[in-house]
Amino acid sequence: MTDFNPNAAAPEDSGIFGLLADEAHSQVVYLPVAWEVTTSYGGGTSHAPRAILRASKQVDLYDADVLKPYEAGLFMLPEFSEIHSWNQKGKALAHKIIEGLDHPSPDHPEILNRVNDLGTQLNEKIRTETRRLLRAGKWVGVIGGDHSVPFGALQAIAEKYESFGILHFDAHSDTRNAYEGFIWSHASIMRNVLDQIPQVKKIVQVGIRDFCEEEFDFIQSQGMRVNTFFDKDLAKKKFEGSTWRETAQEIIACLPEQVWVSFDIDGLDPRFCPNTGTPVPGGLDFQEANYLLATLVKSGKKIIGFDLNEVAPSPDSSDDWDANVGARLLYKLTGWLLASQGKAKIR
Q1: pLDDT band with cut points at 50, 70 and 90 for residue 248
Q2: pLDDT at residue number 42
Q3: Rounded to 5 degrees, what are φ and ψ at 180?
Q4: Which pLDDT band, with edges at 50, 70 and 90, does 318 fall under?
Q5: Which of 288, 255, 282 is nearest to 269 (CA)?
Q6: What's the pLDDT band for 314 if we cut at 50, 70, 90?
Q7: Helix or strand run (H / E) with residue 206
Q8: What one-character-per-residue DSSP string does 105-167 give?
Q9: In angstroms, rounded to a whole number, what is the distance separating the alpha carbons of residues 24 and 44?
Q10: What is the pLDDT of residue 148?
Q11: Four-residue CA torsion sign, 333, 339, 343, 346
Q12: Nearest-CA neighbor of 275 among 307, 306, 317?
């Protein structure tokens, strides 16, 4: 980094955030997952890693919260060709399932099994890559894609940490049981984590405002393993005079010492992410989310990795607003991770 000028425009041959770091010299490595097979409403999230990479080169590296996070070395792996192939096959198959839900065809079970098998392949790929990076001493940030993609990474994290929690930003609870028959649905990620990764001792959900009765009953059945801060309750606290500082401290107090951050961009107010697949009125302001991450780090708890999902570029490429927000949120997540691990200083 000795010859790098953080005030200059991004070099033409640069990587994420305009940096020239490679994997070997980077402490944080981003794992792009161009996958949206089970998307049930709007699409486009498989294009997010590439769009965020492009937009990241416009992000100024001076951060008002964390001192020079880029000096740790930040690198984004190339996208995986096999994931692109699986995504194309899976989307075509899943479309047949979704379109035929009311009148299933005789080959419905076979098609469904093929989609679920592709999801299993994806999970194993992400698990293997995350494991490799963790063994090399890297911190991992997963960039989706839809919200199903971090499951394999969480499996790998569970091999390293016997106990950890998840801070889950989202408009949706994502606790449906095999939504539309898809085991690895984006709407089932937290259900799968709770059912299959016992090392996750706690999930704290923030901003939830769109969920079904089954999901509500399920999270209630989890007792103290799940704390859900519904958007309507967060709004009520604000309307009745509670400060965001008080609310943020209440949220963070529920988490254990080691925390993975799972950030679905639709957890934010949709003015920040209008093209995301399932936008919902309400949600957090960007600075409220950032303050919550700051509160987490300043509490002394450690961020052990993160995922950022459901960023969908404009369908007609008319603007880069969603990708710009995604890139800036990615930089914030990175800075707070490094600060929590003592690899960067808080200003």
Answers
A1: very high
A2: 72
A3: 55, 20
A4: low
A5: 282
A6: confident
A7: strand 200-208
A8: -TTHHHHHHHHHHHHHHHHHHHHHHHHHHHHTT-EEEEEESSTTTTHHHHHHHHHH-SSEEEE
A9: 31
A10: 97
A11: positive
A12: 317
